Amino acid sequence: MAKRRTEHRFHGVTMLTSSHKDIRRIKRTDAQPSIHGNKLWKSSFLLIDYLKKHPPEHCRTVMDAGCGWGMGGIFCARRFNAEVISVDADKDVFPYLQANAAANGVEVTTRQSKFQKITTKQLRDIDLLIAADICFWDELVDPVYNLVKRAVKAGVKKIVIADPERSPFFEIAHRCEDKFCAEIVEWRTKKPVEASGALLVLENA
Ligand SMILES: C[S@@+](CC[C@H](N)C(=O)[O-])C[C@H]1O[C@@H](n2cnc3c(N)ncnc32)[C@H](O)[C@@H]1O
Question: Residue 118 falls within a domain, yes or no?
């Protein structure tokens, strides 16, 4: 029987899979993510690949919203030496994130919060707001769009949201095109994982 991969290496970061012993150990504890933060989603590959190819001019401070296992933020900490705050409504994702941060030798601050509760004040010190696969229900359209609006108001310099092209994502993305001249960029990766989707890219000049 073929052995399952325990990790991926991608653009200088290590991504632990569900088969990794540290992840399996956490899975046996009470940390059971319940809002789809139960694995690393493919949109994280799109986000990381985009950021590698388009390094943001300003990324001293980064917020990863709906971080799940946190790979987007971990990539920014490793590659850009960024100070990262990873936010998720579900605290049970954080042990998985910390295992991945440790595997990459970086530190990331975690905060349990819904998108709706991230304030303009909390966004004021953030240069770059990133997210991957956070627009998966119609009910998330307003909370995610309003988060983008607050981030723009707070002066966040760039916002990048990767998505496997679900319809709530396009509703948000089109609103951001109209209101903030955001761009929708098609993106794909081939290795180590085949992923395709789109990125919402907003430059807040
Ligand atoms: C599909 S997962 C994506 C996780 C990660 N970004 C990735 O690409 O692997 C969606 C994440 O959003 C979080 N989430 C869902 N609704 C949220 C909300 N209203 N506020 C904050 N986080 C939320 C979930 O807990 C989950 O970790």
Answer: yes
- Split into its structural domains, the chain has a count of 1
**Ligand 1 in contact with 141 (CB < 6 A)?**
no
Residues 6+ apart with CB under 8 A from 105: 78
Is residue 2 situated within a structural domain?
A: no
Residue 63 lies in domain: 7-203
Residue from 13, 35, 75 whose mutation best tests the ligand 1 pocket (most atoms within 8 A of CB):
35
Residue 1 lies in a domain: no
pLDDT, one tens digit per residue, over 64-110 is 999 999 999 999 999 999 999 999 999 999 999 999 999 999 999 99
In this predicted model, what pLDDT tens digit does every residue of 15-55 receive, in sequence order? Answer: 999 999 999 999 999 999 989 888 899 999 999 999 999 99
Q: 64: Cβ below 6 Å to ligand 1?
A: no
Ligand 1 close to Cβ of residue 118 (< 6 A): no
Distance CA 136, CA 32 (A): 19
Q: Is residue 44 part of a domain?
A: yes
Confidence of residue 2 (pLDDT cuts 50, 70, 90): low
Quick one: how far is CA 130 from the chain centroid? Answer: 5
Q: Any idea what the CATH number is for the domain that residue 199 is in?
A: 3.40.50.150
What whole-number distance in Å separates Cα of residue 137 and Cα of residue 125?
Answer: 29
